[in-house]
Amino acid sequence: MICRRNQTDTRSAQRGMTLIELLTASLLAAFIMMGLVRLLDLTLDMWAKGEVRREGLERSNTVLGLLADDLRSLHGGGAGDLVIDWQPFDHDGDGLPDRTWPRLRFVRQVDAGALQRLRLRDLTEVEREAYGMGSTLAAAAPPLPDATGLIEVAWAVLPADRSDDPTGILLRGERLLGDDTRDSLMGTNFFRSNGAPAAGSLLEVGGGILWLGIECATQTSLVREGWHVGGALADACTSWDAYRRERPDLDLTPRNEPGAGMPAAGPRPILPRRIRIVLEMERAKDQKRRTTLLNPVTANTTRLEVDNGERLPAPGGFVWVAGEWMEVVGVSADHMIVRRGARETRPRELPMGAMVHYGKRVVIEVPIPLHEDDWRVGN
Length: 379
Fold this sequence. Notes:
The protein is α+β, with helices and mostly antiparallel strands. It is 23% helix and 25% strand. Strand 9 and strand 10 form a beta hairpin. The radius of gyration is 30 Å and the shape is elongated. The termini are far apart. The C terminus is likely disordered.
């Protein structure tokens, strides 16, 4: 009896799994693999989005850091100056301005290393060799410009090359103050009538500029609890003229309106207490992931249907759609609620398929050391 039972158990062990057991095990394995693949895909997607955000923030912070460093070194003496104005451009080529970009020009202080670099920048190779250590040409080298420790700096945004790209290109240039071999960046004719600077005077810092906002705190601006641009004494302004010579052209755009309550001009430049910079950047590969409008939109519609609501900024952000800025009020899976005509644009009819552009907003406030202790009103 015992022998027969052992033989039966041996045959059962050798029989293996039935077809039903095999199918059940395969199904369970498939479910487990599917879950792991979905988890891996979700993890990689989250990692990719995080890398995109990180890279975008790094680029934005680099640009803002360079601009902030320039502004922190503004010269407040008699040789100083600051002009901030705005220039309209026709991005889409329809004959009507649809973007307004800022321009900054000022005099700043620099260290000895920056001065030496600027002194040698325009020399020929032979002249550079003449300044080298132990050079036999040193005696024949022409004298370097008599630098004062001050340079002129200009920043400007110009439209991108493609008419369907709403972003701009950020440019920067510098010049030794008093260098007669180059035209002054502060000159009235430095920017041509079309808004472009003199050829070769500015170099590209970066592209993909979707928005660059500049706001200045005057002597009477109240900015402790938030910035508000307007014509009241407590408001900030978007343009600046250190000597009140009406250099920003108010006929071009309302953003060239001077600040209220500005003191009378004197022998020294009038500088802001504080400057706030808002930067939003959108790269070409960012545009590949943007959503589009599913239907045409009238000028008074505030609920916009989109093909993917997950590709929209959070409420409080701004979007650019077919020539109009809008503030996002609410977001869902297939639409967004907006406030039309933001950032001094006008509500317009929007075509089906229009792309919804936006960029990660980075904000920095730069106190101007000259007036940090002098102008305490509204600090």
